[in-house]
Protein: Trk system potassium uptake protein TrkA
Organism: Bacteroides luti
Amino acid sequence: MKIIIAGAGAVGTHLAKLLSKEKQDIVLMDDSEDKLVALDANYDLMTVCTSPTSIAGLKDAGVANADLFIAVTPDESRNMTACMLASNLGAKKTVARIDNFEYLQPIHQEFFKKLGVDSLIYPEMLAAKEIVSSIKMSWIRQWWEFCGGALILIGVKIRQTATILDIPLSELGKQNIPFHIVAIKRGNETIIPRGDDTIKLYDIVYFTTTQKYIPYIRKVVGKEHYADVRNVMIMGGSRIAVRTAQYAPEYMKMKIVENDAARCVRLTELLDDKTMVINGDGRDVDLLVEEGLKDTEAFVALTGSSETNILACLAAKRMGVRKTVAEVENIDYIGMAESLDIGTVINKKLIAASHIYQMMLNADVSNVKCLTFANADVAEFKVKEGSAITKRKVKDLGLPKGTTIGGLIRNGEGIVVTGDTQIQPKDHVVVFCLSMMIKKIEKFFN
């Protein structure tokens, strides 16, 4: 595929690095030469120093032959304009990063397609949805639903209270367990497990299961004593904070601590009465305690500083808060945050890249996600008639090493997959693999 990325900022650069590893034909364009120099020398891609809204510049970048044009500059209007121009100059598909939630309403979708903008991506909204999923339960690190919740992925940090420690997975399998362990993060290593692997203390383990067996998993990981989340404190009144408060379930009480008085006024206009807005410095622990930090089950740090967010979550944990979430935009800090036992890490770049990456796949894929801590990806494929995945039982498919099928949804019902499972056309199949292996899996579904 020929892919042109307009904007060498954080999202564009990360996406270009990601895709260049797959040997795609990548062109990264930006009007700042300084941003492009290092990338041109160190990665297998071409850079073009030009404005994304220049017709001549787009022609020079080869937009007429582009399979995918992605505009991810910081300026929403520029992204929209670049996509309109690229589409009219021959790009087959366009994606624009936006900041206006109104554009995402379904009634506007056809309008933007007529203009030449095929897809819109709003990283702050995606991040907020991920935060809300992760704070629904204090004992999980990650929560993701497939087909409206028919199948669930949960990531859990294993403590001493777990009853599944040091038991080979093949032994667990003989007990007819109602879950599938699809990935294990151990230190800096990500394991797609086999039967002889075991779960160790402090592993982050990713399970797939159905809704009714979530209490069972909670029991075997020894976290029944963790309090349910009812009170949430958010540090920083960013756009992600606003969306998080809006998407949170009705039963959750939200408090947002924001240092800027003018921003606080704006927050009170944007949010309803279930969210309390507090004008103050979220780094002031005494203020947070005064505002009820010790009675809070979840603390979410969403300032513009990754370091501040990590330190704030550490302070909250010291005060007894079970669930902490930190926005960490510096990818190099994600591993450090995990080693410091920050509960959930949110990174807009990885979230945006997951959604854009989905658009590159030829198979019918409805979900792609990068597991933030683990060097692994998960994708939901819809099975076509006659595809290779339907020809044999799962154990005989010869899936590449480093991949596993975590579960499937058939006629709206979630099913945990075993080696003897026979996948059928129209099934939705959830596949886990080490990072950048999704393209190798794709051929089984075509």
Remarks:
- The two ends are 17 Å apart (CA to CA).
- The CA atoms of residues 230 and 252 lie 5 Å apart.
- The chain has three domains: 2-121, 122-357, 358-445.
